[in-house]
Amino acid sequence: MKICITVSSLLENDAIGNDVVHQLTVLNNNDVSTVVYTDQVARVQMEPYVTNKSKLFDIIDDRDNILIYHHGGCWDNGQKILEKAKCRIFIKYHNITPPEFFKPYAKFFRKYSKHEKYCKKGVEQTKAILRLNKVTKFLCDSHFNAKDFLRHGIDESQIKIVPPFHKLDDFENAEIETDLCRKLDDGKVNILFVGRLVPNKGHKHLIKVIASYTTMYDSNIRLIIVGGIDPGLSLYLDELNQLTKRYQLQEIVNIKGSVTFEELCTYYNACHLFLLMSCHEGFCLPVLEAQFHSLPVIALNTSAVPETMGENQIVFDAPDYQKFAAAIHVLYNNADYRDYVANEGKKNIKRFSNKTIEDQFLKAVL
Hints:
Layout (H helix, E strand, L loop, with lengths): L1 E9 L4 H15 L3 E9 L11 H8 L5 E6 L4 H9 L3 E6 L20 H19 L2 E6 L2 H8 L8 E3 L16 H7 L4 E6 L8 H14 L4 E6 L7 H13 L6 E5 L3 H10 L2 E4 L8 H8 L4 E4 L4 H5 L4 E3 L4 H13 L1 H15 L4 H12 L1
Parallel strand pairs: 1-2, 1-3, 3-4, 4-5, 5-6, 7-8, 7-10, 8-9, 10-11, 11-12
Helix pairs in contact: 6-9, 7-8, 7-12, 10-13
């Protein structure tokens, strides 16, 4: 038996790419001949394992082999691969952001933004994959993701929950930027959010929580937003900057964009709380990163967020900004409560150790 893992692109510092690389390693370490097929590879270390289209088709033409197809958007070439495959097909599903989040950010001369169009096509591709009626198993990052297939009538026996592999262990030996750490140690309450600068991540909610905090308590607080800024979403960034100015938070809200791994590690170590107001998450790896660094998490109860956070965490059902601001104040000023929440978070990440996920993955695939 041979396995081919397919993904549209294999990029550095990409969550889906990390999942693919770890899957490949685990399977080959268990004597299962495994290769990867992708349209774009930017990970030099992976090039020896990337196969060409001819060898891909040889593998998927054999009914005894397995194709693991990573689905998290629209991939035209991937659809063609699925249509040609005669082998067993396992869909590894990372969720697709509902396109309506991007609707307000189309340029005035376009009907759709490119992001909205991409997500619409991704949703349609999910339906096209199901119409093929060829998928053996659905490997979903979360129970929340699994609902996308259950609502289409897929039998629960075909669905396995397999969280994505990650690189949390890399934080163990990460260097910290001492100058940055010193700047952040100035007596302010440091609030962190990590996630791409896209509308579903709830950045406007974050800013409004901080605005409520400054009104209810004081301005001795700092919001640090870390995550890649897409130039195609300049209207969204403009909206966030305007909101920051409206509430006079220019000295408080810090949108950092992409940062180095050392800087990311520093922010996790130098901040006091992690604030999560995202409206849609198929998993939510930054929650685990925060818990790994003993950061208490205050979150909005949406999508896969509570499932990822685990028990005994602070989750609110609605974006009540005053309630979130009060939670920040209480946690920051109550060391025992803060430590309790952080310790419960530490317990939670044990559910998602790579060793645990390896066992779940191998059981689902082999």
